[in-house]
């Protein structure tokens, strides 16, 4: 069953009818039309599967059990491992809506629909009952060593410049160094007739190789090239091959003008087919531009299974460029590689040209991976031995310099200097080299590194295989349905290598109108599974279409740089010649590529925001940029396939090709299954095919607000997962008008509040500066009317300067001041008049401070903004406020006498300062005396409607001796500290002003 599945896949181009785990486009489960999660497979019955995880998780697999599905018989392309499955899905049982690879690549057709279009099932070749079982027999075929004949043109076209000299050197190098032991080789030359120069011989030793390599004539024939008989040479070469059995290869080296007529083509084709011979053609040199195919040798070669290579003519006066010689060697190498087991040939690690006349020392590097090592050869090819200086240095990956003076082997017959490294010397990693380059400006040096694979390597060896979509090498650019596609398969053992950098370089042959070479065209190949032409992502096959080539011949080289899980490597391969014919269209008729990886998912922490992700297709296939997208949605899958549905506006413009594009949509349909697809349109109106169709389903929002969760909610994908390659979350949604209004309103409100705060801070700063200026001026006035207050403790003698003050105390001039009762305070508060100002502020400015430890704040009753919270024992409401009789510096004190207090009270606080009287005016009734501190330091002239009092000396009114009041570490002078004193009663001499 597994063999039958793979045969159907190979023979008829059908694909898997089952989804894959971790695939965002072909998931293991999908949401069916009824809204339920269903296994993604084609079957004749509803499948019963019990996954161990949630079906909407892309990493959740499903396994079909025979016991749970006893009637399962389809499809062989989905369940070849189930014994009861022996049939394929047809029109009746096929599920066109399942996102399987077969539905995507075959436009929803069943396997049987695709197979019946094959010639194998035409003309009733598959009539039921018309087949019978036969015994299967297997034939084991063992390949023998290659058998090759080298067929070389010997006419006067080779008697120009260094063409024949390069030919003899290249043949000798090919036979002496390149062909492995055991290969049978013969040599035939031709012009108007053909003759055998050396019969078919097995190469076993150096002596035989030298004899065959020296078989070419020293000088070419002078016979005119137009008399050459190519068919004569092919007949002679086939005759040489048939001397020792059937089958082999002919390597034909001829000039570019060689061609065959229809009769000769027919005869040559019959000869090659009957004798199982493949013809490989090397055009050397290309002396004219190619014509359109008219039965030329390249068609004959490709139809027989061979390759074609071209070496352009690059003559300089009587000389030829070294590039002709090296390209001829290169063509021999790749012809031998295609004709024999590639593992028996050395691997070409490096091949690079270093032009002469530029720098005295040419440098470069090459990568040696762990699979390489035996017979490693570093070779330098030159036109003249004097072009190579004495310096050839190699540097291994550890930085060790290898001086090759005693390791160089010079072969003047083939213009080559080699340095052979022992297997133990070949350290895996990046090597560097330096060569003294003395070549002329019109010549160059070529550096080549080859090595063989290790026999006992512990890591899988890397192989590279290349081919095109046109087996005959002819591409008609007028047929846009069959553009040229390039393929490169990179494997490490049997496993495809992912993530490699694969670049194809197309060199157009011939010259431009000004006589220069055409610029090479570099094309990056991808293994992205986006079809057109890559089918499967990650299988190691890199491919891409190459449209819009001008009619001409193209030589193609493929370069690979990659990494396995254990090492890095480089490889290169020559594809041969591609002949582009036809007429280039005047107008753009190439549509954009098809989008095949459209994905959708419900974004986390949202109710109805859907994120869509896809790869931008390009304007011409997957090149350039498309102009716009057309997005269609429908509740019916078939309606989208037929071109119907509702157009969804507001999608972004396409990005450049290969870019990951994202878009977010608010989906307002809940609990409803919908289908969505898109296609791109270029600037000329060319439209792409419809993309893969994704299902869209948004569950109903919760009726109540759920508590916040620290875990991310489960996603609800629609045949899709998060952004491919982990490159970020989808972009913001297109918001509705009311949502935009809320957002802009919040932003505007925040800006307005910020402006108000800035204005307020500026006003406060300006006001504080004015207050500081006024305070500084009043302090100057205070210095002239300073009040000295002396506080003495018990047992402390007054100084001599204070004797009069002490005597005054004894005489009773200063009466002690006692506390007032609560009733007195309350009555005073009620009877006293407050300032009649409308702002309820007193005549004292906010600069009047109270000291709290080392900090000061505004007085509770004289503050403006930002009050300091008092923490008195009593309630602030009980404290009196100043009356209108409270004097200013320009007014007299009230003439009322102060009656003695009737009751005493104390307030617990920190101890008063020794330097001044610590009495707060807040605790003294305004009707019973003046404040206990000078008003000058706290006076603010701005509070008195423009009055500016002159500095008048204060008028003492009454002398009294207060009892000590204990407050909350308060100080009347904000500029002084608060030292600690004892809590006992002290005698204070106070002079009130």
UniProtKB/TrEMBL annotation:
| Transmembrane regions | 740-763
- Where does the Calcium-activated chloride channel N-terminal domain start and stop, copy by copy? 1-126
Q: Which SUPFAM superfamilies match?
A: vWA-like (SSF53300)
Compositional bias segments (type: Low complexity): 848-859
Which keywords label this protein?
A: Membrane, Transmembrane, Transmembrane helix
**Keyword Membrane listed:** yes
Any one of the GO CC terms:
protein-containing complex
Give positions of region: Disordered: 825-911, 947-993
Report biased composition (Polar residues) as residue ranges. Answer: 825-839, 968-982
**Keyword check for Heme:** no
**Name used for this protein in its record:** Calcium-activated chloride channel N-terminal domain-containing protein
Q: Which organism is it from?
A: Halocaridina rubra (Hawaiian red shrimp)
